[in-house]
Amino acid sequence: MAVVSVLAVMGSESGKKVGRRAVLLGGGAAVLGTAALAREELARAWWRLPWSEKERTDGELDHKPAEWRAASAANSRRADRPDDFSVDRVVIHVVQGSYATALKVFRDPLHGAATHYVVRKDGHVAQMVRELDVAFHAGNRDMNERSIGIEHEGFVDRPEDFTAAMYAGSARLTADICARHGIPVDREHIIGHVEVEGTDHTDPGPHWDWDRYMELVAKERARLDGGGPVRAAGRGTRG
Ligand SMILES: [Zn+2]
C-alpha cells in the first residue's frame, strides 16, 4: 500500500511543523480531511520549486509497454529526477485491493498517495506518475525522492493473487527501470515497502516470492543488455 507523507514533507518545506500521519490506501472517509489538507499544502509548495524542468509531453511513458493512466497531480510532487534527486531504489507494494481500486484511488486528488506504476494480475502495467516526479508511496520523504514505486494487484494474505503473469510483467518493468537509472539488480536496491525505514506497512508480505522475482528481474535485465545472464545478488531475506 502507498502511504502519504505529504504533511511531513510539506511541513518542512513550508517551514511549519506538521505531524506525520499515515493514510492507508483503502482508508475510507476518515482520511479525507488529512488528504485534503495535504493537497492544499502541496498546491502551494509547487510554486516554490526553483529549478527549470525537462520538457514534458502529455501521456508520455517511461516504461514503453505500459498504458498511461494519470494519477491526480495532488498525489505526487513535481520534480526533475534524476537531475534533482537520483533514483536508486525500486519499492514493491501490494494494493490490498484490485487494479481498478488502485487506479481509482490514485486518480483521486483527495487520496494523497500514488505509485508510479500499478501491475495487474495478467501482467498489464499502468503508469500513473512520471519517473521525473516524486510519488507519495513509501511514507518516507527520502525514500520517495530516491525511488520508483510499483503497486501489485491483490492482497498480502492471498498467495494465489501473485500470478506468474504479474511477476513477469513486474519483472520486465523493474528491469527496465534498473537499466534506465543504472540501479543494481539486488535486494539492497529493490525492496519491499516493509523494508522502508520507519514504515508500519507489511507489504508485499510473506507470500511475495523474492527469490523468484529477483531471478526474473535479473533475466530481463540481461535480456535488455542483449548479453549474458546477470545473477541476482540477493540478501537472502524473504517476505
Ligand atoms: Zn505499500
TrEMBL record:
Coiled coil (UniProt feature): none
Domain N-acetylmuramoyl-L-alanine amidase: 76-205
Record keywords, A-Z: Cell wall biogenesis/degradation, Hydrolase
Top-level taxonomic group: Bacteria
Region (Disordered): 58-81
Catalytic activity: Hydrolyzes the link between N-acetylmuramoyl residues and L-amino acid residues in certain cell-wall glycopeptides
Matches recorded under SMART domains: Ami_2
Biased composition (Basic and acidic residues): 58-67
A Pfam family reported for this protein in Swiss-Prot or TrEMBL: Amidase_2
EC nos: 3.5.1.28
PANTHER family (UniProt xref): N-ACETYLMURAMOYL-L-ALANINE AMIDASE AMID
Name of the protein in question: N-acetylmuramoyl-L-alanine amidase
Organism: Streptomyces gulbargensis
